[in-house]
Write a structure and sequence with these properties.
By secondary structure, the chain is an alpha+beta fold. Helices cover 45% and strands 19% of the residues.
Amino acid sequence: MRMLAVAVMAMLAGSPAASLTLDAAVLDEINYARTQPQAYAQVLRDYRRSFRGLVVDDPADPGYRTTVEGVRAVDEAIRFVERQPPLSPLAEAEVLTLAAVDHVAAQSRRGEVGHISADGGSPSDRVARRGGGVYVAETIAYGSNNPIAVVRQLIIDDGVANRGHRAVIFDPRFRHAGVGCGPHPVYGSMCVVDFAATRDGRPAPR
């Protein structure tokens, strides 16, 4: 499935079909990192070569970007995935996907950022509105419609002191996920990923 993410690298998310493919490719890339973390380290090493100080110009995701930490965060992420035990892949779950898509739809209209909706709803609230439970976690990446860059951003977690997005991606308790990607009026694009131990965010049976 890794080939799906590679095939989408040059795609823009401008059409509904491309957007659906991006969603699937992001989940595929997350699963690549989870199931083959030592191999995934090479993705980060390749990315590291694109830095000049705090500025990165990645040929796979064109456009100069200024980072907070520069290669320090990349090096730390490399060390992390090199030590990370392989995990099971995440299975796509409809309720989680619908909740992720709902958040993208709202933020793409109003240009908001973050995990809290304009009405004060949390990721748990959005999953519950779709008929699920509240035991969920969420990551959001802004600014890229390249699945490799989206997941790389979450795993490096530049400027995020607790590396919370990375911790969610590599949490062994999570077995299911749903992805929603779409346009964003400020950052161009965004991808939301909702995670849970069960398909609907309800507690796993004991």
